[in-house]
Amino acid sequence: MKKRIRIAFNAPIVLAMVALSFFATALNVLTDGASNALLFMTYHSPLTSPGTYLRFFTHVLGHAGWEHFMGNAMYLLLLGPLLEEKYGSMKVLEVIGVTALVTGVVNYIFFWNIALCGASGVVFAFILLSSFTSVKEGEIPVTFFLVAVIFLGQQAYEGVFVESNISNMAHIIGGIVGAIFGFLFAGSRQEKTEKRR
Fold first, then answer.
1. Residue 38 pLDDT > 90
2. pLDDT-based confidence at residue 193 (cuts at 50, 70, 90)
3. Residues 6+ apart with CB under 8 A from 45
4. Contact 54, 108 (CB under 8 A)
5. What is 119-168 written as a DSSP string?
6. Alpha-carbon distance 192 to 38, whole Å?
């Protein structure tokens, strides 16, 4: 008897983020950028406007176009399911939320003349966090150091010497957030192991 093959929704948070990003990008294309300015892009808008605080989180869903969306979606779908399986959906949602908020607030304060949108900060948080997935008790993986040095060095270099529309600030902050959560999640796993002994 043949086993039935079924489709498994293995990473609900990541799938939801990619789906919402797809619809936000489609809406942005259809409205010629108006929807991003209203909902999916953070910039130096008045603090009296509720939209300012909403966009601190929703800017990670907006993308400048399909190429921008596809690049980020590919990495989210590659790394996200592994992280969701390892740490759970709520922890991955926490990483996404904190990354969005921190990059949004930093952009608002220090880069008031630049509008920011896209999930690349979350992608880089996932990249650094993924280097912790095989951590054992009392260890820091060499891969983490290599990824951190290469990644932070490249982003710092590009931020200073390369002129582009890419937010190296979001990449660096996303990577730092991912690294911090990697240490925190590794620490909480250690505590659970010690309690079981």
1. yes
2. very low
3. 51, 52, 55
4. no
5. SHHHHHHHHHHHTTTT--TT---HHHHHHHHHHHHHHHHHHHH---S--H
6. 44
Q: 14, 77 in Cβ contact below 8 A? A: yes
d(CA 170, CA 178): 12
Q: Evaluate if residue 133 carries a pLDDT over 80.
A: no
Specify if 5 maps to a domain: no
Q: Which domain holds residue 173?
A: 12-196
Decide if 76 contacts 14 (C-beta within 8 A). yes
In a domain, 97, yes or no: yes
- Rg of the chain taking only CA atoms, in angstroms: 18
- The CA distance from 154 to 192, in Å, is 36
Average pLDDT along the chain = 85
Tell me, yes or no, whether 6 lies in a domain: no
